[in-house]
What does this fold into?
Amino acid sequence: MSMSRKMGTGVVIVGGGIVGCAAAFSLARRGRKVILLEKSVIGGEASGRNGGGVRAQCRDRRERPLAMASITLWAGLEAELGFDVEYVQDGNIRMATNEERMGMLRREMEEELADGLGVEMWDRDELRRRAPYLSDVFVGAKYCPADGTANPILASRAFGWAAKRIGATILVHTEAVSIGVQVGQVTSVTARDRDGEILIETPWVIHAGGPWTPQLSRTVGIQVPIEPARSVVAITQRMPFLFKEFISSHDLGAYCRQAREGHVHIGGVGTPGKTFDQTMPAASVAQLARGAARIVPALRGANILRTWAGTLENTPDKVPIISPVDGIKGYILASGFSGHGFCLGPIAGTLLSELIVDGEPSLPLDEFRLSRFAASPAPV
Amino acid sequence: MADQVEVAVVGAGPGGLSAALAAAQAGAQVTLIDGYGRPGGQYFRQPAAELRTRQRMRHQREGEALWEKALGAGVRFLPETVVWGAFEGNLLALHGPHTPAHVQARAIILATGAYDRPVAFPGWTLPGVMTAGAAQALLKQQRILAGKRILLAGTGPLQVVLAADLVRAGASVVAILEGSRFFAKVVRQAGALWGQWQRLAEGLGSRLTLLRQGVPFRPGWGIVAAHGTEQVESATIARLDSQWRHIPGSQETLTCDTLCLGYGFIPSNTLSRLLGAKQEWRPELGGEVPWRDIDMQTSVSGVYAVGDGAGVGGGPLAMLEGQIAGIAGAAQTGHGAGEVEKTIRHLAPILARERRFQRMYAALFTPGPGLYEWSRDDTVLCRCEEVTRADVRKALALGADSANEVKAIIRCGMGDCQGRMCSHLVAHCIARETGRPVAEVGLYRPRPPIFPVPVLALDRQLEEIASGAVSEAARR
It folds into this structure.
């Protein structure tokens, strides 16, 4: 039997995805003692397994200010973290194959312009002129020049490396198993690694566990209404330069970006199935290939080199929960990012650190409270 | 065009051909799939069609006979077909000129063989450095000599056979460097040679050819570096200690235009991994291999593995294993259920003899750990992505602790070969740097497609899925 170990810290962060790592980095930078617990490896789940899109357009209105603020942070990340995360602001094109979709995009544009996000509508001719590589099935598109992409594998890890460098303790292969609460106040987190259990005394817990959040939150009687979903990505062999924008079509069910090395990443739009299964279904490989070939005809000549699947988590309204939990002082949820966590990660980390250090975040988080789901029926 | 079959055999080398024949003779419908146009694999590799009038080697005649029997028994052959993925429900995804996009089989027999173990040392990426297998394929299939002045470095009798074939075909073999210093060991293991008359005769024939030509055979020697500007011009060699580390001060330089490396084989276990079969780390069998029970079934019901892909053991052993798996696979689909136990019992003594030989071979010719220390910091380990040993160390310094994590950070194994070339190199490098066993470090996790597959071919496959041609019926 191994002896149980004891540690103490200012903040425990559960989850080593981009949100947890960004929070660890922000808190460590502001002088807080931080221990981050990750059940497997840093950035190994949805944070490192996504399309790499960093966009503010086509967001829920509540989420838009966060996305815009996050993009400002993304622009300075390389300098701040000391790692090249391949971030570029080469624009985001959301295409439409029909007038109904165009109508939706137009309405969205009005809202976005009102909120200060620079976007423009392109008709068929403009789209042909600006993105001649696209198939002619599209009747138009909405374009946001400030949107861009980054390397998801590197970005989450870079936050982790940077946090560690400035003093955060990062424990990988270490799973948080319960949260200790006394008289309505967080007092500890119990974790388990291969050598046994560790008791960590702490007044604060940031819970950024992604799809695995509900099982730990249940240890303090909190139901978090999120469900897992499988996301899928296929990658082509290296191709000559084809396009620089992040392009997507809900009508054709796929998005594409060409990464720095020339590989084209193809992702599925929409995430069917409530599952933790991370195997790649044969049909999904073919669907991604078909989607890509229909969006960019030049990809008809490409070869698919690799695919992967990941697990993301959806809330009922597809907007994240970034919220202190009523009745448990010191317990903050940061989960349910619904596939948007990669872009939002940097700002989420900053706001979480402000909640703890300043007691007040620099952007309002009222729309992201857990309690907004209280009236809605429990998910099936 | 998606097919429901009873038994699908992947790989038409000795193991796959035998499995297909046995299953078909037991009454099962069998589909045999291979990446090449003609069955045979490396062991029975046939000359190209244009060269078929020439006299063929013994193995080629043997392979031809086995193939004719299989054909006669009703085996359907899908040539030039790559199996790029294996999915739940025993579904194999295929790509080939005239093949269905999917085969759904009630029993899958994996006879995927093995490939030459890459060894990284300064200069190993120069043109003119190739695997022994490549030189052999060129000779057997195309009747092409890999070079004029050829240096062979590796381990095991296969390179002696290759050297003799090269000499007979007119090349000059500069020397054969044998990593193992095995003479003492041979005496201890000699008992295992009982009954291996054909192998002994073949070995003796090769040795005589080489002796007549005065080809130096140097046991206990290995490669330090290959040199050249456009291609190999010379190689530095050195004596090896018992762990296969270079002995300082023993270096020599030999002039050559080709360097053939034959440091054993790595089992191709990607498909069994994709299907979720439990794996074991067995250095004496070539590395990671699927766990199997007595009838060659893996931990996944209905999935069998035979031959070098399940543990390097050579052609004759592969044929025996194939026979057993063929009968067992047929029984699983309702043909000749009573035969399995009888076959296993009947083959037991020959199988035991072949396993004895396999163990002896492994004891003599499994490379020592020093083989993976022949690289330097600036030596490329992943050729596709040009990742050096120093890069791997950088990833480790950032906290990576597995081959997968190193791959994520520095891209080794993300190239067109899907990590086949560098998987073992990187895993051993991590193991050495971190002082942990290779089994714990692990190899890269395979991801479909395991060979690059055209977008258009996938698009076509979607039609099949949509039309419901892949039914639930075959899933049992």
Notes: Chain B has a mean pLDDT of 90.
